[in-house]
Amino acid sequence: MSKILVVDDNAELADNICQWLQMEKHSVDHCSDGQAALEYLNTYEYDMIILDWAMPKIPGIEVLKQYRSTGGKTPVLMLTGRRTLDDKEMGLDAGADDYLTKPFEMRELSARVRALTRRAQAQASSSLSMGDLVLDRESRRVTKAGKELRLMPKDFAILDLLMSYPNKVFSAEALIERLWSSDSDASSEVVRKHINRIRTQIDTEGRSSFIRTVHGVGYSFEKPE
Q1: Which helix (H) or strand (E) holds 186?
Q2: pLDDT digit string (tens) for 73-98?
Q3: Closest among 32, 224, 8, 191 to 109, alpha carbons compared
Q4: pLDDT digits (tens, 9 = 90+) for 46-65
Q5: CA 80, CA 59: separation in Å to the nearest integer?
Q6: What 3-state class would DSSP assign to 199?
Q7: The domain boundary residue, chosen from 89, 123, 157
Q8: What is the pTM of this model?
């Protein structure tokens, strides 16, 4: 599961994209103009950005240039009705990672999203491990002592984030901001329930948990004593 920002002023198309991505278990935010897009990108972290070229206030190509100029590294899939090689070259030179011409099939959008996600993950690491616990991002499998565990998509996303930053403490609010859409009504109690469900899967009876609760602060992933 990835957290994706969709930026498109075509309400019908944007709604179709968001519904399709949510059906594929992604967390999705949507905004309809370039100024709002920059505000979202300054506030939240995303795994991918789907960005329309032609938009009100600030065109998508300018949003992309500004985002890259400030060090933004999230993969960007540019959507546009422009078909010439010069336009495509302009988009890629501005920092787009891929380019999809309208109209398009949602299955093709999914394939582009998967390809960019795999590429970004490969640049990091395809798997994470701590002791006998292994999380494989490519296959989306978690194993403990060689036995596959059954984690819900959101539980997998939480575990992936915590394992990516061992010993770093994440507040419930930080986890919600990173892994839920901005209009979600998720609460610290919801996060606590997810953490407890993950613990029942990954922990060993009689040993301290992989996930430590820092009371009044949040949660961190640590090797059990």
Answers
A1: none
A2: 889 999 988 766 676 777 777 788 89
A3: 8
A4: 889 999 988 888 999 999 99
A5: 11
A6: helix
A7: 123
A8: 0.65
> The dihedral of CA 204, 210, 214, 218: what is its sign?
negative
Note down the domain range covering 77: 3-123
Buried b or exposed e, range 76-98, using 16+ CB within 10 angstroms: bbbbbebeeeebbebbeebbbbb
Interior angle at CA 140, CA 194 and CA 99, nearest 5: 110
Q: Does one domain contain both 12 and 118?
A: yes
Angle at 119 between CA 12 and CA 109, to 5 degrees: 20
The CATH number linked to 106 is: 3.40.50.2300
Quote the distance between the C-alpha of residue 91 and its chain's center: 22
Of 69, 92, 123, which residue is a domain's last? 123
| Integer Cα distance of 180 and 28 in angstroms | 8
Residues 20 and 60 in one domain: yes
Residue with tokens 């490969």: 122
| Token couple for 91 | 């988009």
CATH number at residue 151: 1.10.10.10
- Which of 98, 114, 197, 188 is CA-nearest to residue 149? 197
pLDDT digits (tens, 9 = 90+) for 90-146: 777 778 889 888 889 999 999 999 888 877 666 556 788 888 899 988 788 999 989
Three-state DSSP at 152 gives: coil
Number of neighbouring beta carbons within 10 Å of residue 123: 9
